[in-house]
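Entry:
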Amino acid sequence: MSRLHAYIGTFRQLEILLAVYEQGSISAATKVLFLTQPTISMQLKKLGDAIGLPLYDQVGKRLVFTEAGVAAVGAARDILGRLELLDADLADLKELKAGTLRISVVTTAKYFIPHLLGEFCKLYPEIDVQLNVANREQVLERLERGADDLYVFSHAPNRDDIELFDFLPSPLVAIAPKDHPLAKMKKVSLEQFAEYPFLMRELGSGTRFAIEEHMKQFGITLNLKMTIESNEAIRHAVMAGLGVSILSSHTLAYGGHIGLQEINVSKIPIVLHWQLARLKSKKASIIACAFLDYVNGQGRKKLLHDLCLEQPHMRRYFDQNTMASVANSSESK
């Protein structure tokens, strides 16, 4: 039986290894570990010596992890992940509900997820939250390696190894400046809308993916003028008259819509649904389970209530039972 664990080093060395791998360099890892470069290099050398194989090669300014290094990173994730679960379990036994909740969300979700987290943290003030905001492609990469407890998508991947929880409609709506010719029209065909200069999110964005898939259904090619990596920048570009766009209604509800006009375009809105995702193979922490329960109950009702106050037309995307729960929630305030 192998006795590798007897001399592989300390948990701290595994934390250092994981940080260097995820940050991409020793210098970047110093900022998250609060250690000097010589200290990190020395600890990685000790770990490599214990394993008996080099962990990485230096190619110019880049670190290229060896096969042994990648295997060690995988083991480090498993080991440190189990310790985090143990820490959360022990904290729960002490009725502290302490621990860390790790969530990765696609960019548009940043407008409402903080509202959920704020109320949840009032219920459990001892917990820590690590919130990662990225485009869909980057969140999928984090999902692939199990970096977080939960992931938020508006267009979740179709996979058997994940569990999905619907909690909020996510309509994508057409927008233009208030003085735009389309803003004066009661009804605009999708073909007419597609003729105008269009401002699109970057490749890898969930919004872009949904728009492109929707347009394919109708054989429509948009007049792409500019690619922009931010919803806020798109809003301002539209207000400046650079073109029209399609954005999540949540961007307008929470980000602001002064100077913008929602356009009544046929075959739009594109109605998606916000979903929380978790890997089935990764045991859910106590805090992650508590957050799921909160979102499916009190948190979802509050979001719906606030959203309907901001944008009354959003009510058409909810069924009667949902609207009844929102009304009851409002009356109880």
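The first helix runs from residue 11 to 23.
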